[in-house]
Amino acid sequence: MNKKKLPKAIRPGAARTRSAASEAAVSVDPGSDAKGATMTADDTMATDTLAADRREMATKTVERFAVYAGAAGIIPIPLVDVATVGGVQIQMLRRLSQIYEVPFSENLGKSLLISTAGTAIPATSAVGTVSLLKAVPLLGMVAGAVAMPALSAGATYAIGMAFLEHFASGGTLLDFHAPDYREFIKKKRNAWRERRKGVGEPAAAENHSE
């Protein structure tokens, strides 16, 4: 008796071949690359948005603490004003560390603030020097009271922006090197002074590459 051949469409071999072809088609779905590219673009956009939000928040934080430091500079007692300004700056640094999720150490933070101020701010206009003017009767007190708030605010703003740039670039307290920001801090101090005069700070000054 001759065996009847099965239709080609349902032969076991044909079924296996068709199944393998289907799996191969799925594995090389032409839309997969496009989907991956879309996800990458979305991830990049989300990262950029987060970075922009952090910078905006951090910038506002620095500006706010600069104003606080200026208010602290009004304190009429020599060196007490310096200590108060230092306290404002360490709190600013703590807040910036939180925004950028950087480990914070108060002792290390104080050390870095002192070294940064010493490196980037001229001794002739140092906060401590101006503070001591308040000990001089009459003219010294007046001069110190006028100069100290502006100097404290400007120095705090410039130092805060330096740490902002450092954290935004992926740095931490451990690898912050004050001399690297000498010129940057100088420009930021000048920018703050101009802003107080109503001129405003150029947007380009926000970049560390200046």
How would you describe this structure to a colleague?
With 210 residues, this protein is mostly helical. Residues 6-28, 135-143 and 200-210 have low confidence and may be disordered. Helix 3 crosses helix 4 (106-120) and helix 3 (80-99) runs parallel beside helix 6. The relative contact order is 0.10. The protein starts with 11 loop residues before the first helix and ends in a 14-residue tail after the last helix. The chain has 7 helices and no strands. The protein has one domain (34-206).
Q: Whole-number average pLDDT?
A: 74
Radius of gyration: 31 Å
Strand count:
0
Number of helices: 7
Fraction of residues in helix: 55-70%
Percent strand equals under 5%
- Shape label: globular
Short overview:
By secondary structure, the protein is mostly helical.
SSE inventory with pairings:
Blueprint: H1 12-27, H2 31-72, H3 80-99, H4 106-120, H5 127-132, H6 139-168, H7 182-196
Helix pairs in contact: 2-3, 2-6, 3-4, 3-6, 6-7
